[in-house]
Amino acid sequence: MRYLILIVFISFVSVVTAKEKETFMYEISCAGNAAGYYVVEVSVYVSKKKEISDDVVKKCALHGVLFKGFSGENGCHSQKQLLTNYDVKHSALIDKLTSLEYGKYAETIGIPLKVIKQAKRYKVTTVIQVAKDLLRKDLEKAGIIRKLGF
Fold it and tell me: Are strands 121-131 and 37-46 parallel, antiparallel or unpaired?
């Protein structure tokens, strides 16, 4: 009986933890060049129609610049991720940045969302510009990444 209660409790904690953390499948690639910005095309795969929004794509664009990097195509330069290894003490700040403060760094450029239904998911695509200079400055100020040239 105790084992059954323990198993139920562990599975409940796992489900609650999984619901708290937003994770999206996405693809990111270069879409152009602009001074002070990364202009990227982002395609996000969501399972529910109510998840379709600019905000989801902005979050994934910022996450992609920080953790994934993107390939350079059509005259663009590829970009490595900004954060290759960072101290665990900064993880709360980075989570806040990607989940709450993403609007400070990522914005749409007027291209409407393109939504395609694929099996049980929706593929949401648009072009986002990420303020690379401001992002880098804030990450340097927080001590997450080193200043260029040092």
Answer: antiparallel
Instruction: Pull the structure tokens for residue 138.
Output: 């804030």
Q: One digit per residue, pLDDT tens: the chain, 150 residues?
A: 555 454 544 554 444 333 445 577 999 999 988 899 999 999 999 999 999 999 999 999 999 999 999 988 777 888 999 888 766 677 888 888 888 889 999 999 988 999 999 989 999 999 999 999 999 999 988 888 888 755
Could you give the CA distance from residue 82 to residue 68 in angstroms, rounded to a whole number?
A: 8
Return the structure tokens found at 133: 């200079």
Answer whether 33's CB lies under 8 Å from 39's CB.
Answer: yes
Structure token digits, residue 56 = 């989801």
Alpha-carbon span 37 to 106, nearest angstrom = 9
Total residue count of the chain as it appears in this document: 150
Q: Is the torsion defined by CA of 66, 62, 128, 112 positive or negative?
A: positive
Report DSSP state, residue 149. T
